Amino acid sequence: MLKLVITPSENGYSVTDGNEIASTKLDGGLSKSRKDKENAAAIVSVKWTVLSKLEYEYIRAFYRTPAKTGANEFLIDLLMDDTGMTEHIAKFVPGSFKTDEVDANTYGISAQLEVKPLDEDEDYNNGLVASYNAYGTDYENFYNMLSNFVNVQLPAIPVFDGS
User: Fold this and answer.
1) Report field, pTM of the whole predicted structure over 0.85
2) What is the structure's pLDDT at 22?
3) b vs e for 116-139, b when ≥16 Cβ sit within 10 Å of the residue's Cβ?
4) Which of 34, 73, 122, 159 is deepest in the core (most CB within 10 A)?
5) pLDDT tier at 90, thresholds 50, 70, 90
């Protein structure tokens, strides 16, 4: 699978998570909801601001040829599920790819991508929520102290081997 190697501008993101819930409004009270599907694709609006004609031509050529104007999946690094870039499988949403700006040597391209979700680490998510609920903004300090204890101090303690 080919990869689009020019990453979108970090300030040009909008992520709408996939809807995995079926919901029915009730006359009184909260809606009735249930999980309906697994791994629903997210819709991600992205923008590339590139500073050379070659980068602009590369993105347009990638869209027209390997991506087949939205028909084929490709790899792309996105800032979505984490605080850093992670590689995702995506497709262009048909009709969303457009040139927004052409100004001297600055080119702006925007598009919507349909993005497959990464496998979630449910234990990590539950632990993060429980820890943050317990420690609030001090969670990061607590995590750093715990990490230091487990990874630095604890391994340095001599182990009694029974002899």
Assistant:
1) no
2) 74
3) ebeeeeeeeeeeeeebeeeeeeee
4) 73
5) very high
